[in-house]
Amino acid sequence: MAVRVGTVSVVLRPRPLIVTALASVAAVGLALWSMTVGELPLSPGEVAAAFTGDADAAVTYIVVDVRLPRLVLAVLAGAAFGLAGAVLQSVTGNPLASPDLLGVAAGAGAAAVTCIVLGFDGSAASLSLFALAGGLLTAATVFGLAWRGGMRGTRMLLVGIGLGAVGNAVTSLLIASAGYEDAARATTWLIGDLSGRGWGDVHRVGWALLVAGPPTLLVGRSLRSLRLGDAVAAALGVRITRARVALLLLAVVLTACATAGAGPIAFVGLLAPLIAARASATAETPLVASAATGALLVLVSDLVARSGPLGLELPVGAVTAVLGAVALLLILHRANTA
Amino acid sequence: MAVVLLAGTVLASLLLGTKSADLGSTWRALVAPDGGELASVVHGLRVPRTVLGVVAGAALAVAGAQFQALTRNALADPGLLGVSAGAALAIVAGTALLGALTPPVAAAAALVGALATSTVVFTLATRGRHGGNPATLIITGVAVTTLLASLTTVIALSDQASLDSYRFWLVGALAGRELSLLWSALPLVVFGALVAGGTARRLDALVLGDDVARALGTRVARTRAAVTCSAAALTAAAVALAGPVTFVGLVAPHVARALVGPNYTRVLPTCLVLGPVLVLAADVAGRLVIAPSEVQTGVVMALLGAPVLVAVVRRRALL
């Protein structure tokens, strides 16, 4: 089904649409339900009352200033990571290319911790800017080092793993050298914990999605042509290099800002696009469906983390890391035995 | 030359730190402790971390060379393959289940973890069409490491009180570890070293491929099993002593090959010397860069080792 608005035409396929719709509905439903669960269980009526201003101050505070930002942040960060992962996987043609394995998330994290340790995180924008600079620098270094008259997916991943290790080491170094308070703040941020995040963090990720999301989808339309090979894509009117560089930049922007807002939530950028592509049964990775799946994934993981298996509150990053690592092993296993 | 380097780093490790001292007074504090501050620093802190660093470094370097031969993969390393993470998880899980572990039990747990992880990683990475692909092995290792490290984090979070002492160690650190740990890890080191020495010659045959090795009269399956056990034991000992330090096992064999050529009968002894040099150098650097506080040895080692990983990847056209 083709939809045409002026000169822009978009091919809509039913199956990715259904996946997007299902993931979105599930995410919204889950989000609404998770407003009621927590240390203080609330009835749906009480939650609604908090929004209309009829509830008492404590309940309003819990719903509007504690649970709502956490939820919105989970959705936005999940969408950003999912979208970034989908773009990276499509552009590189490698199902394992993700912000984590390419080292971009680690680079953004190291830069963000630098910002905290240097004491520049007073203003809302500076943490994002630092993360952005770190992410871009890491991505440029990975591509620069992996480029040898051509790009090979595995070389890129291995270089990314190396640079990711450098990023994590720099982070540890900074935390070790920081004062106690900065170190504590940086550690909480690093562990990918969504508790204790406020509206400032939500704005950080929200703006990134608003600014980088639409252009990503727009340029992303050329991904289908790029899949056919550079010559065909060029013949179809795609400016290959420009499209690739633009998409990679946008993916890095999304990753860095989501990392700045929500901390490094491991492997969502790897997992969401893979699930979305499989559910959609399309050859190319569907961008919007990946974003919706990412949002759902982080929401579910955060719920699991909050509801406390073994009676403890986990950081959401630990849950997604376990899920993502198992998925990664399954992919490798399948690729090997196929 | 390597031995001179080792002597130099041992000396540096004894002399340098937040409270650096000159050679003469350190020597006096070492041989004739007078109960002064320097004597207690040297005996209580610097001698233990130097000795543990030497043993852990040698074990990791030899294990790295063995893993590289076993997998015919220049990128193999106990840390990158997840074997160290497996040993660390076993220790932390053991502590959570049984309460504080005595050093021998911790070493045994580490051995179980290391053996299990190396078996799983090898099986996952060597099956099927892309079985021989070096990148597959490393990415599998990264996935396994992430999985095991996350589980370790979860356990550590659930049992903060008894596991707080592990926080520093989990990044790989020689500071604050006691010399008595050495005795419980020693059986693993001795076993690993003996098997490593006995199988060194057969590693060269293994590198040529299983078929050639068989034709040369090597019992391939038996040799692989022996070398895997030895490498796992050495990794487990190193983790029990110094935590999961990555990249020593990657860097040392590469430097050794550059120095003495590809022959494993010469690479392994060279690793035995180079491993301690690397670990002690990283440890001393960690003490000095942000003195008076310290960076964990594992962190410095990652800063040194990751560029080597990138360089090796770039040099191989195959990857």
Q: How do the strands and helices of this protein lay out in sequence?
A:
The complex is a heterodimer of chains A (338) and B (319).
Chain A: E1 2-5, E2 8-11, H1 14-34, H2 44-52, H3 57-92, H4 104-118, H5 124-146, H6 153-177, H7 180-190, H8 199-220, H9 223-227, H10 230-235, H11 240-262, H12 268-280, H13 287-307, H14 316-337
Antiparallel strand pairs in A: 1-2
Helix pairs in contact in A: 1-12, 1-13, 2-3, 3-8, 3-11, 3-12, 3-13, 4-5, 4-6, 4-7, 4-11, 5-6, 5-11, 6-7, 8-11, 12-13, 13-14
Chain B: H1 2-15, H2 23-31, H3 37-71, H4 83-98, H5 103-126, H6 134-158, H7 160-163, H8 166-169, H9 181-207, H10 210-215, H11 220-242, H12 248-260, H13 264-288, H14 297-315
Helix pairs in contact in B: 1-3, 1-13, 2-3, 3-9, 3-11, 3-12, 3-13, 4-5, 4-6, 4-11, 5-6, 5-9, 5-11, 9-11, 12-13, 13-14
Describe this structure as you would to a colleague.
The complex is a heterodimer of chains A (338) and B (319). Chain A has helices at 14-34, 44-52, 57-92, 104-118, 124-146, 153-177, 180-190, 199-220, 223-227, 230-235, 240-262, 268-280, 287-307, 316-337, and strands at residues 2-5, 8-11. Chain A is an all-alpha fold and 338 residues long. Chain A has a two-stranded antiparallel sheet. In chain A, a hairpin with a 2-residue loop joins strand 1 (2-5) and strand 2 (8-11). In chain A, helix 1 (14-34) crosses helix 12 (268-280), helix 4 (104-118) packs antiparallel against helix 5 and helix 4 (104-118) runs parallel beside helix 6. The radius of gyration of chain A is 20 Å and the shape is globular. The two termini of chain A are 33 Å apart. Chain B is an all-alpha fold. Chain B has helices spanning 2-15, 23-31, 37-71, 83-98, 103-126, 134-158, 160-163, 166-169, 181-207, 210-215, 220-242, 248-260, 264-288, 297-315. The longest helix of chain B has 35 residues, at 37-71. The two termini of chain B are 33 Å apart. Chains A and B meet through helix 6 and helix 14 of A and helix 6 and helix 14 of B.
